[in-house]
Fold this sequence. Notes:
Elements: H1 4-15, E1 19-23, H2 45-50, H3 56-59, H4 64-71, E2 77-81, E3 87-92, H5 112-122, E4 132-134, E5 140-145, E6 156-161, E7 164-167, E8 172-174, E9 179-180, E10 183-184, E11 186-189, E12 194-195, H6 198-204, H7 224-240, H8 247-263, H9 269-282, H10 287-301
Parallel strand pairs: 5-12
Antiparallel strand pairs: 1-2, 2-8, 3-5, 3-7, 4-5, 4-11, 6-7, 9-10
Helix pairs in contact: 1-4, 7-8, 7-9, 8-9, 8-10, 9-10
Amino acid sequence: MPDSGLLAAALDHAARGWHVFPLRPDDKRPAFPDHPADRCTLTDPKCRAAGRHLGWEHRATTDPTRIRRAWSTRPYGIGIACGPSRLVVVDLDTPKTETGTPPDAWTGAADGVDVLAALAHQHGGTIEPTYTVTTGRGGAHLYYRHPDTGAALRNTSGSLGWLVDTRSHGGYVVAAGATVTGRRYTVALDVDPAPLPAWLAGLLAPAPRPVPRTVAVALPVDRRGPYLAAAIRRQVAHLTAAPDGQRNHALFASAVALGQLAAGGALTDADVTAVLEPAALSIGLRPGEITRTIASGLRVGARQPRKVAA
């Protein structure tokens, strides 16, 4: 049965300009889509309409009509997509049983709130009042406005300190009004999000991307060589131009395209990996993610071999 309280909460968040999307009822996981990018067959209606995989971040909306339509069908939880909402959310956790003792660097800290306070002191900063949500487990989400200048900030997990994570581009949080395993997320301080403190923005600023290294792939001496070289350049350009939120899918698409040529005998799987891996690293994708995505693309590409005339 739908829940009018969840619908009202989703509409309230959207009215603030925050992009919301359905979570599975009483759960943290997105309700849609039901498949990852590398398994998209374009049978999902929204993926089919877009002509590409459409993940939760691109489905998030502030449109009241769409929100009413979704939350009037089931008691969906509420996710807030931080990137489209121009938010940086600092997630301050409480220790679980297995992590109850802080590391030596944070001796004396009881939870993420203490660690953030210590970080602010270390860096000569302050923690200004901002929109705050108490999580189901008693932690806190501090909502800040994403800086207007500089690189897009992404998610972190423990890199700032013990029990301190952040969510921004590519990340989401459970919104106030929703529940997870029966525990409700509630508003603790209802004010407009403050600007992200400069000291914290500096700690979260991404490291400069490595310059892609030139990879030599042995191409045929015959007339296939120029065709393959152009195909490789086209796919690398497609990948490195992909915007935030679409980079993993762009890598998958490029791996499929070059994988078709590999299946047809014009390249090898090793050639495809040697070309795409450094380009993917240069745009900030993680090594493990790159390996899995290229392998998936090669498998899909192998189903439709493309032969190049000699």
